């Protein structure tokens, strides 16, 4: 069960919900700030090709990488602040919501 939650496909699904602003978590969604949007874009664009050992698409890999970049950025920039905690709680809520379905 834990492996399923950290797979690129799951990270991609969550990143798409963040981008679309359509999360169904019980925690209110936080729209991305301009600097966060830039980090997501940079993380997505750093993927030039799909690793050959992986069975999913380049787009899934790009989305997963951009989510990892966003959370890493928020942790480094705002570890003690509210923004990182709120985003981490939102992502956790999305994962738990998926488990309930």
From TrEMBL:
Xref: InterPro entries: RNase_III_sf
Example GO BP: RNA processing
GO molecular function (one): ribonuclease III activity
UniProt-listed SUPFAM superfamilies: RNase III domain-like
Name this polypeptide is given: RNase III domain-containing protein
Species of origin: Triparma columacea
Record lineage: Eukaryota, Sar, Stramenopiles, Ochrophyta, Bolidophyceae
